[in-house]
Design brief:
Keywords: Chaperone, Metal-binding, Repeat, Zinc, Zinc-finger
Radius of gyration: 39 Å
Shape: elongated
Helix content: 25-40%
GO molecular function, one term: heat shock protein binding
InterPro entries: DnaJ, DnaJ_C, DnaJ_domain, DnaJ_domain_CS, HSP40/DnaJ_pept-bd, HSP_DnaJ_Cys-rich_dom, HSP_DnaJ_Cys-rich_dom_sf, J_dom_sf
Largest sheet: 4 strands, mixed
GO cellular component, one term: cytoplasm
Number of helices: 13
Protein name: J domain-containing protein
Order of helices and strands: HHHHHHHHHHEHEEEEEEEEEEHEEEEH
Structural class: alpha+beta
Strand order of the largest sheet: 10-11-15-14
């Protein structure tokens, strides 16, 4: 194949640069050439340097030092990158369709909603179901592409940032470009052939369009507990609605006694592989949508979805000391995966009802106790409730309103150690609103005695 004039020019420049640099050195000073660059490359399906296979022989067999090879590769990469951006602009002249619109979902849709919309549309527009519709395959490919992007968090995040057209350019291999983006765009500044030949294509770039594996959907629910259930621990039997494997087809999506046929296009692999010189390209099979199988008839119970809405039950052991708003994750007790993978998880958020007696602060417990005026003045004993039963507490003489005492180790056991918190008793001095005549007389006598003591102390202070 004839080389382009641009490539010929770059090769001539490289030869000239080498000859000039060698001419300025003595034979003894000429460094040993570096190890040859590995030419057998793997490029992701969206491709960034298809030109390299075409010029592999001339590029890697040319007698240039190791540094010269890498430098030349970078020059060609920048040339081809600019050329590819130009072609991408031409091929993407028409506005790219919004992937959310294709699936008929909102931009804040969750993975469950995305998956549900995909299965419904894929089943409706599959070419085998719409053999008389010439546009069915195109619609199916659009739906498949939208799902492949939106089900992957990294792809979806990039799509939300750059929009439909920018993302289409990234898939085409051009990149959006822009300040600080270097030759490739999207902020991957400084990305050149030395990154690839060093065995390290930028990890984020390499993984951007990788297939993601998804299990079943997570189920979220709220469980209300009493104060004592949360403190002491308990066992709860839970029942909830979620997706379960269809029992009619045993999760195959096809009627019992039948099975999906292997896709003849991809031979069951779900991908189409093409070899272009030194490069291997791989893309999702558009005939089977990447499943590797084709279905002629769907299960009448689940409609080919492989899962149906159903009831699940679970016994949950709640450890002692769980607090309000904590969330427990029960692995594998969520929704069934239509693809037959791992089920989702069950996420149980705990809500603890307030107790009329106890208040909680971490591992500590607080209670309020009313005492009379005479108990506050004279002291005495009272019964105080604790988590393990009532205890007798001594009230000291002269106890003030709001004063508190600690009962060591009467709180909640820490979940991360063997220690228990404390229980704090807050005293509330109760002022009576109705008293007898005798009580009034005694209090008045007490008040007179207080006044005499005050007058005596004042006289002693002035004398």
């Amino acid at each position: 194949m004839a080389r382009s004039s641009g490539i010929k020019h770059i090769l001539r420049v490289a030869r000239g640069s080498r000859n000039n640099s060698v001419g300025r050195r003595s034979r003894a000073e000429t460094p040993e050439p570096k190890a040859s660059v590995q030419a057998n490359l793997y490029v992701p399906a969206f491709g960034i340097c298809s030109f390299a296979g075409q010029f592999k022989d001339s590029l890697f067999q040319h007698p240039i030092s190791g540094y010269g090879r890498v430098d030349l590769c970078n020059k060609i990469f920048r040339f081809e990158s600019a050329k590819r951006r130009f072609h991408a602009t031409g091929t993407l002249g028409m506005a790219a369709r919004d992937l959310y619109d294709i699936l008929g979902i909102s931009k804040d849709a969750g993975q469950g909603e995305i998956k549900k919309a995909y299965y419904a549309l894929a089943k409706k527009h599959h070419p085998d179901v719409n053999k008389g519709d010439p546009d069915a395959e195109k619609k199916f490919q659009e739906i498949q592409r939208a799902y492949e992007v939106l089900k992957d968090d990294e792809k979806r995040s990039l799509y939300d940032r750059v929009g439909p057209e920018g993302f289409a350019q990234a898939e085409a291999g051009g990149g959006a470009g822009g300040p600080g983006s270097g030759d490739f765009g999207f902020g991957y500044g400084g990305f050149g052939f030395e990154d690839m030949f060093g065995g390290g294509m930028n990890e984020a770039l390499r993984n951007m369009f990788n297939q993601g594996s998804f299990g079943g959907g997570d189920v979220k629910m709220t469980l209300e507990l009493s104060f004592m259930e949360a403190v002491q621990g308990c066992t709860k039997n839970l029942s909830f609605q979620t997706s379960v494997t269809c029992t009619s087809c045993n999760g195959s999506g096809v009627p019992a006694g039948t099975k999906p046929q292997t896709c003849r296009v991809c031979k069951g692999s779900g991908t189409i592989k093409m070899q272009r010189g030194a490069f291997r390209l791989e893309s999702t099979c558009s005939t089977c949508g990447g499943s590797g199988t084709l279905v002629k008839e769907f299960c009448k119970t689940c409609g080919g979805d492989r899962v149906v809405k159903g009831q699940k039950k679970c016994t949950l052991d709640i450890m002692a000391g769980i607090d309000n708003d904590e969330t427990l994750r029960v692995l594998g007790r969520g929704g069934a995966d239509p693809e037959g993978g791992h089920p989702g998880d069950l996420l149980v958020t705990i809500k603890v009802r307030e107790d009329p007696v106890f208040r909680r602060d971490g591992a500590d417990i607080h209670v309020d106790e009313n005492i009379s005026i005479s108990q506050a003045i004279l002291g005495g004993t009272i019964q105080v409730p604790t988590l393990t039963g009532d205890v007798v507490l001594k009230v000291r003489q002269g106890t003030q309103h709001g004063q508190k005492v600690a009962l060591k180790g009467k709180g909640i056991k820490s979940r991360h150690s063997r220690h228990y918190g404390n229980q704090y008793v807050h005293f509330r001095v109760s002022i009576p609103t109705n008293i007898t005549q005798r009580q009034r007389s005694l209090i008045e006598e007490f008040a007179k005695e207080e006044n005499r003591d005050e007058e005596k102390r004042a006289a002693e202070a002035s004398g």
